[in-house]
Amino acid sequence: GNSVTQMEGPVTLSEEAFLTINCTYTATGYPSLFWYVQYPGEGLQLLLKATKADDKGSNKGFEATYRKETTSFHLEKGSVQVSDSAVYFCALSGYTGTASKLTFGTGTRLQVTL
Amino acid sequence: DADVTQTPRNRITKTGKRIMLECSQTKGHDRMYWYRQDPGLGLRLIYYSFDVKDINKGEISDGYSVSRQAQAKFSLSLESAIPNQTALYFCATSDSRAYEQYFGPGTRLTVT
């Protein structure tokens, strides 16, 4: 079945540091890949997505590239801010003909300090 | 106003009680989902519905039931709550043309 593996957190960075959160996946077929972000006390929000190999999703300074050869979708940001402190979830959705179900990783907590 | 709303936002209940969590959406999506979030486990799918007449079990449906009262409303019931159902519950929606889902703010449920 489908699965997503994320690096364990928490990840603690100083403001303006470079961020990488690793995500690898196992899936049949050609899944779409997503990063969701959960700010404290809120639900999940879609941060970015990629629907096919070599696509790069980007939003709010975050980027992730769909790497089929390494089955990875690592999240990066060049300069984090305190406001980026949140939990980040990698997810995939495999096409089954009927389903748009998501499989989530366990989440990585990011803490950014001044 | 929020596109996906959940009520209540917080609930404390006792073991054995029946409880219902409600979800409403104004996005016009036909697909709705219920997840639970536990620390270190990510989100796990409880039930999902692709339209009003379609209900499907997710990976952890035991102890839960759902009702799709209308396209915009999807409720989750715990028939007899137990402490290990203490968790954060999220409702989500999507349309049939895309895979991304839109989440409500969550309901924090505590069963004592």
Task: Tell me what the structure shows.
The complex is a heterodimer of chains A (114) and B (112). Chain A has 114 residues and is mainly β. Chain A is 0% helix and 49% strand. Chain A has strands at residues 3-6, 11-14, 19-21, 23-26, 32-38, 44-50, 56-59, 62-65, 75-77, 86-93, 103-104, 108-113. Chain B is mainly beta. Chain B contains no helices and 11 strands. Chain B has strands at 4-7, 10-13, 19-25, 31-38, 42-51, 54-57, 64-70, 73-78, 87-94, 102-103, 107-111. In chain B, the strands form 2 sheets. In chain B, strands 2, 4, 5, 6, 9, 10 and 11 form a 7-stranded mixed β-sheet that branches. A 4-stranded antiparallel β-sheet of chain B has the order 1-3-8-7, with no helix packed on it.
Overview features:
heterodimer; A: 114 residues; mainly beta; 6-stranded mixed sheet; B: 112 residues; 7-stranded mixed sheet; 4-stranded antiparallel sheet
In short:
The complex is a heterodimer of chains A (114) and B (112). Chain A is mostly beta strands and 114 residues long.
Topology overview:
The complex is a heterodimer of chains A (114) and B (112).
Chain A: E1 3-6, E2 11-14, E3 19-21, E4 23-26, E5 32-38, E6 44-50, E7 56-59, E8 62-65, E9 75-77, E10 86-93, E11 103-104, E12 108-113
Parallel strand pairs in A: 2-12
Antiparallel strand pairs in A: 1-4, 3-9, 5-6, 5-10, 7-8, 8-9, 10-11, 10-12
Chain B: E1 4-7, E2 10-13, E3 19-25, E4 31-38, E5 42-51, E6 54-57, E7 64-70, E8 73-78, E9 87-94, E10 102-103, E11 107-111
Parallel strand pairs in B: 2-11
Antiparallel strand pairs in B: 1-3, 3-8, 4-5, 4-9, 5-6, 7-8, 9-10, 9-11
Gyration radius from CA atoms of chain A, angstroms: 14 Å
Structural class of chain B: mainly beta
Q: Which pair of chains forms the biggest interface, and how many residues does each contribute?
A: A-B, 21 and 25 residues
* Total of helices of chain B: 0
Mean pLDDT of chain A: 91
Strand runs of chain A, count: 12
Distance between the termini of chain B: 33 Å
Cα Rg of chain B: 13 Å
Q: What is the chain-wise order of helices and strands of chain A?
A: EEEEEEEEEEEE
Strand content of chain A: over 45%
First-to-last CA distance of chain A: 41 Å
What is the percent of helical residues of chain A?
under 10%
* Record field, number of beta strands of chain B: 11
How much of the polypeptide of chain B forms β-strand, as a percent range? over 45%
**Shape annotation of chain B:** globular
Biggest β-sheet of chain B: count, sense, barrel?
7 strands, mixed
User: Element order, helices and strands of chain B?
Assistant: EEEEEEEEEEE
> Given the helix and strand composition of chain A, which structural class is it?
mainly beta
Overall spatial form of chain A? globular
Determine the number of helices of chain A (DSSP H or I, runs of at least 4 residues). Answer: 0
**Unreliable residue runs of chain B:** none
